[in-house]
Amino acid sequence: MEEPVWREMREGDLEGVMALAAEVHPGLPERIDVFADRLAIFPAGCQVLSSQAGIEGYAVSHPAKLFEPPPLDEVLGALPPGTDGYYIHDVVVSPRLRGAGHARIGVYHALDAGAAFTETGLIAVYGTTPFWERFGFADRTKSVRPEKLRLYGPDARYMVRRKSAIEFTPRAG
């Protein structure tokens, strides 16, 4: 069987992305319109982990205003004015493929897409703060208005990564 590979997301992938999102994030539902919106406004920030079985992962990211994360399930329509950072909306790998390094590669794809920005923010959910810390993200929850995180659950943490002067991103080989 062929190894799954990360590639650019296409409109035809959205149903597979939605099925995986429903499996992995049942408590954080988003409409297909949200994923279609991110693909339309910043396609460079949208990748999927594709295999013969279908969509096994996705990474969605885009320019944003730091400390102003987009609300859950909101269609943006356009990049917000005054973007001063990058935002990782989500990086997901199917539970069937976890532990093989696919999530790490998905994170690097998202960081590469936002390479023009000095800082990248995200909302960590389900206790994933230690995962994000491995990539240099630090908890900055106190810098975000609480209502911005409320819909993401009680353990949601806003995290920020500041790019170092020298970045090294391992590539999949």
Concise account of the structure shown:
The protein has 173 residues and is of the alpha+beta class.
Proportion in β-strands:
25-35%
CATH architecture classification name: 3-Layer(aba) Sandwich
Q: Which H/E pattern describes the elements?
A: EHHEEEHEHEE
Helix percent reads 10-25%
The CATH topology name reads: Aminopeptidase
* Alpha-carbon distance between the two ends: 17 Å
Strand order of the largest sheet: 1-2-3-4-5-7-6
CATH domain class name: Alpha Beta
Which terms would index this structure?
about 170 residues; Aminopeptidase; 7 strands; seven-stranded mixed sheet; alpha+beta; 4 helices
What would you note in describing this structure?
By secondary structure, the protein is α+β, with helices and mostly antiparallel strands. The protein has four helices and seven strands. It has a seven-stranded mixed β-sheet with strand order 1-2-3-4-5-7-6, sandwiched between helices. The longest helix is centred in the middle third of the chain and has 12 residues. The radius of gyration is 15 Å and the shape is globular.
